[in-house]
Amino acid sequence: MSELRELYQEVILDHYRRPRNYGELPEANREAEGHNPLCGDQVTIYLQLQDGLIQDIHFEGAGCAISTASASLMTEALKGKSVAQAAHLFENFHQLVTSDDAEALPAPDLGKLAVLAGVREFPMRVKCATLAWHTLNAALKNTGELVSTE
Amino acid sequence: MTLTASTSTTRLTPAAVAQLRADFPILGESVHGKPLVYLDNAASTQKPQAVIDAISRLYTSYYANIHRGVHQLSQLSTAAHDEARRKVQRFINARSDKEIIFVRGCTEAINLVAQTFGRQNIGPGDEILITAMEHHSNIVPWQMLCQEKGAVLKVAPISDQGELLVDAYEKLLGERTKLVALVHLSNALGTINPVRQLVELAHARSIPVLLDGAQAVSHIPVDVQALDCDFYTFSGHKLYGPTGIGVLYGKEERLEAMPPWQGGGDMIRSVSFEKTTFSGIPFKFEAGTPDICGAIALGVAIDYVQQVGLAAIADYEAELLSYATEQIQAVPGVRLIGTAREKASVLSFVIDGVHPHDIGTILDQQGVAIRAGHHCAQPVMQRLKLPATARASFAFYNTRAEVDALVAAVYTVQEMFG
Q1: What residues does the Aminotransferase class V domain cover (chain B) (predicted)?
Q2: Of A35, A98, A27, nearest to B378 (Cα)?
Q3: B290 and B411 share a domain?
Q4: Does A40 contact B372 at a Cβ distance shorter than 8 Å?
Q5: pLDDT along chain B (418 residues), means of 10
Q6: CB–CB of A63 and B355 under 8 A?
Q7: B224 plus B117 within the same structural domain
């Protein structure tokens, strides 16, 4: 139960119920769509990218609490960050949700994203937490490909 | 052969079910420190000790390849494999064991029909009729065939309750309809289709019918002669048997008229480099060494199920489903998906403000295994305007106490998201 409480802590439920930066972004110059075919979760990331900086970022989609909160927190964390900083953050975040080694965590610069640390106790849910990030990567690379967690 | 199913009753009492549960070793396992409550039977059922033992016994004592060997072991394996085919025949009341083709599963059975009967009989502008409640196995093979042949896939609509609209179905049966393929018991909604009537309506226009029985065979008695369907398909693993084995039933005259599917050993009568003559049915459709063990173990699973009695199973599960329906509906914020009048085994639901995936995780922590997602039936989810549902699905080994555990776990979901 305590693991569940950590997974579904208040910040996550709040971002699930009231996702930040939700909806289309008219100024977007990059966008990518991702989905998890196992559960049907779907997310679209909209980016306004200028001079290597994420000027603005929005998302839209339908998913579980973990994937929605993760996307919402991600958009908050990335606004104003450089592409290189975003890549670094994703690396840290990925480690946070997959690492077995609690000692190595949390990376100090993760900020609010650290609330998703509970996901590492639920390996089946890692894909939910990282879907938005993989989709972000596709948007940054502008591949135009549909991102799938499978 | 000794079977552990200890009752051959017309009714499954709680005491009888308790005894039957002991035949399934996995039901004594724990998950996250809680007793396992296994409610994902529509995805796959657990296996009785009799089936597990049959697999072990084959490999321990008499395994060999079948049909070609002149030695003792091959004869024993061959006899057991042939007997398994007759068990399937009797189980669904086919006229002949030649009408029973062993395949890998229900999906492969449908693909076989699409690739042989379908390619032979369906051309440009022809129509294949399915329903809006099919799972992907009974959609995709037909889509592929339509694409190849320039044919058209038609979809009979369903009501918001998840019932097929029979009048609309009948209107879609036309001169161009070359095949109807529809589910007997829906995996996402639990709906039991009035298949006898649907077959009759199609046959009145000389249209053959394939029934997808993946869910049906473990929950209700199936008699293919009474249904008069042309094809019937199911998997072993949803019938308390092993994975990797399934069955295509086809009427003898249909199968005779169809070309072979895959080429290779066991489906040939003679081969020269100039010409191959093919075996008769069912071997024409069984290229290569079959899943010998799978078929034999499926036969044992069928023995087991018949010993429990499908009529008794159907009655018991209907009573359990009605109890579960009542209990889950009493939970505030819970909405049932799929409320057909004729239903079996499946309790699909959603909770306001909680994604089914989150329900699945929280229930799992209480030891309750359900399925959360689209159940490989995305079009039916789209029809009902849902991304996914949480689905509890029952077998005869489930109990009221397990339903209570499910409901208690659903209250925990409410608390967490409250």
Answers
A1: 37-406
A2: A35
A3: no
A4: no
A5: 52 96 98 97 98 98 89 95 98 98 98 98 98 96 98 97 98 98 97 98 98 98 98 98 98 96 81 82 93 98 97 97 97 95 97 94 97 86 89 98 98 92
A6: yes
A7: yes
Across the interface, whether the CB atoms of B373 and A128 are under 8 A apart is answered: no
Q: Flag whether residue B188 sits within 8 Å of chain A, measured between CB atoms.
A: no
With CB atoms and an 8 Å threshold, state whether A1 touches B365.
yes
Shared domain check, B105 and B26:
no
Q: Which residues on chain B are in Cβ contact (under 8 Å) with A43?
A: none
Residues B344 and B300 in one domain: no
- Number of A/B CB contacts below 8 angstroms equals 51
- Measured between CA atoms, the residue of chain B closest to residue A38 is B373
Tell which CATH classification among 3.60.21.10, 3.40.50.300, 3.40.50.1010, 3.90.1010.10 matches the domain A3-141.
3.90.1010.10
The reply to whether B377 and B277 lie within a common domain is no
Is residue B167 within 8 Å of B140, Cβ to Cβ? no
Please, which pLDDT band fits residue A107 given cuts at 50, 70 and 90?
low
Q: What is the pTM of this model?
A: 0.93
Do B290 and B330 lie in one domain? The reply is: no
The CATH number given to whatever domain includes residue B410 is 3.90.1150.10
**Cβ contact A66–B358 (<8 Å):** yes
Helix (H) / strand (E) containing A1: none
Query: Of the residues B106, B146, B229, B376, which is catalytic?
Result: B376
The verdict on a CB contact (< 8 Å) between A39 and B416 is no
Cα–Cα dist B278/B183, whole Å? 32
Among B residues 56-115, those touching chain A with beta carbons less than 8 Å apart: none
Contacts of B383 in chain A (CB under 8 A): none
Q: What is the pLDDT of residues B159-202, one digit of tens each?
A: 999 999 999 999 999 999 999 999 999 999 999 999 999 999 99
ipTM of the complex: 0.88
Distances (CA, A) of B55 to A27, B47, B102, B286, B303: 63, 11, 17, 21, 14
**Domain-terminating residue out of B307, B322, B345:** B307
Distance from CA of B278 to the nearest CA of A (A): 40
Q: Say what the pLDDT of residue B270 is.
A: 80
Per the annotation, the verdict on B106 as an active-site residue is no
Percent of chain B with pLDDT over 90: 88
Phi first, then psi: give them for residue B255, nearest 5 degrees. -65, -40
Same-domain check for residues B111 and B193:
yes
Sequence-distant (6+) residues with CB within 8 A of A91 are none
Within 13 A of B226's CA, how many CA atoms are on the CB side?
8
- Largest interatomic CA distance in chain B: 73
The answer to whether residue B1 is domain-embedded is no
| Chain B touched by A41 (CB under 8 Å) | yes
